Amino acid sequence: MTPAKVYYTDLHAQLGTSLLQKLERLIRAAGIDGIDFEGRFTALKLHFGEEGNLAYLRPNYVKVVADVVKELGGVPFLTDCNTLYVGSRKNAVDHLNVAMLHGFGPMTTGCQVIIADGLKGTDEAVVPVPAGEYVREAKIGRAIADADIIVTVNHFKGHESAGFGGALKNLGMGCGSRAGKMEQHASGKPHVEEGLCRGCQVCARQCAHGAISFGAGGKAAIDHGRCVGCGRCLGACNFDAIQPPDSHSNQLLNKKIAEYAWAAVEGKPHFHISLVIDVSPYCDCHGENDIPLVPDVGFFASFDPVALDQACADACNRMPPMPGSVIEGSDPCCDRFASAFPDTDWEVALEHAEKLKLGSRKYELVTVK
Length: 369
Fold this sequence. Notes:
Blueprint: E1 4-9, H1 19-29, E2 41-45, H2 59-71, E3 75-80, H3 92-101, H4 106-109, E4 113-115, E5 124-128, E6 137-141, H5 142-146, E7 149-155, E8 157-159, E9 163-165, H6 167-175, H7 178-185, E10 186-187, E11 191-192, H8 202-206, E12 212-214, E13 220-222, H9 232-236, E14 242-243, E15 246-247, H10 250-265, E16 270-276, E17 298-302, H11 305-317, H12 336-340, H13 347-355, E18 363-367
Parallel strand pairs: 1-18, 2-3, 2-7, 3-4, 7-16
Antiparallel strand pairs: 1-17, 5-6, 8-9, 10-15, 11-14, 12-13, 16-17
């Protein structure tokens, strides 16, 4: 297989040249101009950051990408899907509030923000995954599925379950609806925390299989004999009384992320940008961020999300551990992400994505000044 080209620029900004200008030069050198954007809806898939987290990407970077897409005739919008866990982005109202709080909006980026899986995370498109070993049909946020082009803007960082979060994580987990996230993260069927249930019965109205009933105390109960694990009740409950099942192993999670990533871009032009800065050990889904694992590295871009993730991981592994970080004092030759999270293996996702022909782990690094 011919190595994929991954383009890179460092963070040196000489007098008269800003990092924003370098980012634009990078994505143009990487060939974004070769996509036919004319009149086409373009999903700029990113992570708006959990409230309290300050490691998320600045909206200034996203505006650079949006401006290039508009110049090329595209119609960009910023997007992400709601979270599975309880937090500040589990429904579209809260999610939009956080996006605006963190500076993502029309005034700052020139783009509208659309939460891809709708108000409660139930607006999804079912995408067949013919080669999927673990996912036969991926549940992708409707607005992302309806988009003509996907451009990911990734904050490359550590992740406590996947090892790191990059292009594949942003595509796979990030483009899944709430039910899609449950399918990737969990094994089994949801259950009810009776102490949180209000007996409002909204969940039962969303269940197409008659699996939810209410006892003498008015509390919901899920019949796992009837439940198909679709997860729509998770989105229906406003009180977090319905909880996802037990988590998968990290290896299985990474393989499902790869299969969902394939589904998110299948049949569409796609382009990927990763900013390897503020490489925090935990996902931006956390309401806090710790000292970065390694010093800032630079910006990367490619049409190949697998090669891009491989190149970013390699670059991080060439950097020294950051003093004061959770990997301070670790073996200088060891994998930075394995040091932070010994129970993870980020290579699983890349190996599986390569098997799905989503991309190649072999790459040629092209430096852009």
